[in-house]
DNA sequence: TTCATTCTCGTACCCCCTACGGTAATGGTT
DNA sequence: AACCATTACCGTAGGGGGTACGAGAATGAA
């Protein structure tokens, strides 16, 4: 299993490799088992809990044993990410109509980030180029391609939509992570900073905030920024594609992002 | 200077505290000096380089000395963040017209993330409630308030715009960080994964990607998702406010996000 | 039986944050 | 001048982390 010299691709695509020759001492674990265990630990106790030592202990194995299956912790995280990306299930049965496909994507994505909030702690750039990540790209490209957009705009449109949805899901997940780590709800956290307004806040320097505050503008939020923004983006892309547009209401998907 | 029991607020607002009584041994450093040094290290070598040991060494002081000025590393990062937030200069002279104000905000924000890319590694939720962060909120609220939006929608509109711009700036900064850390450009990184297409990619499972690829859709990007999305959001918000809208082109601000 | 092959993992090194408690330096008071 | 409350300084130690190295154990094949 060893002898990976900075080569993560064969690990990401390991399920496409057909056979396996038996030679030498048989392994006690498998890449899949290590990755699954890491995901389970991260889901339960955060990405930090999925340390090499933690995973090894969970598997009743010495820490260094894991390096037989995985080149490094960073690569393991890549494997974890592509695994949950694939589990989102965008490759199977899916809606056909444009908005339904987008909604399906959003629902699955929010569900993924809720089940695996540690994803919000993994860098969104240069993601693992594995089957899970490619399935996502294929799905979103197919979604906007069905609208009849010119080929030069497909990628931008797909990235815009996926980016907006993902950003909202990540924000919600990050919120969950911090609430868990601190044991404080956002409301409690604000209460702890209550003295801000009495002691430190300078109303004269923040006239608009003061006005909004006094008018109750911070409490009665009429719109969710995520839904509002998504609506605008969908309308714009459909218009771009020359379809008739009706700005119907977008069903709720996000919790409190 | 000691005796902060989880009280970060007085540190964030330390410049609002007028006098300082002299008693006991005089300090060699100051909070401002510690924060400035940490920012300098993080700018030059990443957030990890701004470790307590690293900062102390830079100041020719023992590591534990820093804890006289700052309760913990996390609080120090909060201080760093609010410092650069304030340095953005949104509190001073600024444009008056709506779109110019938004552009001003975007320019300053991208400049901030380019000067301090480590910001992208700091959680965007529950930010430090200091003068720098409040100045930003005041600026964006004043910007959308001038449009005449109802008070219940001001916060959502401000958050939508700020969120879109910030997300793009963070993505660009994260890109910079990874390029620095790995010493690889994104192009080189893709080259390393060139074998993906020959060895692992299954064209039959990704028909749309294959079509777009063969049509050159991944190379000739006609639009920047950031600019495109921002345009749509601005149009929508202005429409909401009942203004006349002309979808004029939004000047380039982002680099390659 | 021997051997190449492969997996297992103890040790060691370097990095991080920070609790604790002792020590040094000051201004004010006696 | 001596003393003291106050504040700053920091050495030590303990608990995390990732992983390079190399010796030992288990297997199938020759």
UniProtKB/TrEMBL annotation, chains A, B:
Keywords: DNA-binding, Transcription, Transcription regulation. Residues 51-70 bind DNA. InterPro entries: Homeodomain-like_sf (IPR009057), HTH-type_TetR-like_transc_reg (IPR050109), HTH_TetR (IPR001647), Repressor_TetR_C (IPR004111), Tet_transcr_reg_TetR-rel_C_sf (IPR036271). It comes from the Bacteria. Residues 28-88 form the HTH tetR-type domain. Transmembrane segments: none annotated. It holds the Pfam family TetR_N. This is TetR family transcriptional regulator. It comes from Actinoplanes palleronii.
């Amino acid at each position: 299993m060893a002898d990976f010299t900075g080569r993560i691709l064969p690990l990401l695509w390991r399920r496409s490799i057909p056979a396996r020759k038996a030679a030498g001492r048989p392994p006690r674990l498998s890449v899949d088992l290590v990755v699954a265990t890491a995901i389970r630990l991260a889901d339960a106790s955060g990405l930090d809990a999925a340390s090499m030592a933690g995973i090894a202990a969970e598997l009743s194995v010495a820490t260094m044993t894991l390096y037989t299956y995985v080149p490094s912790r960073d690569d393991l995280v890549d494997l974890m990410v592509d695994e949950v990306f694939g589990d989102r299930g965008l490759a199977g049965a899916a809606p056909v109509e444009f908005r339904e496909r987008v909604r399906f994507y959003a629902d699955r994505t929010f569900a993924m980030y809720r089940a695996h909030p540690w994803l919000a702690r993994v860098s969104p750039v240069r993601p693992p180029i594995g089957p899970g990540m490619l399935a996502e790209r294929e799905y979103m490209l197919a979604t906007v391609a069905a609208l009849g957009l010119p080929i030069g705009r497909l990628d931008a449109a797909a990235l815009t939509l996926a980016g907006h949805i993902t950003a909202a899901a990540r924000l919600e997940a990050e919120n969950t992570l911090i609430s868990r780590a601190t044991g404080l709800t956002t409301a409690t956290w604000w209460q702890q900073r209550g003295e801000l307004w009495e002691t430190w806040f300078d109303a004269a320097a923040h006239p608009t905030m003061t006005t909004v505050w006094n008018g109750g503008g911070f409490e009665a939020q009429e719109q969710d920024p995520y839904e509002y923004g998504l609506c605008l983006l969908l309308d714009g892309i459909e218009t771009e594609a020359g379809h008739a547009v009706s700005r119907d209401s977008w069903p709720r998907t996000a919790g409190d992002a």
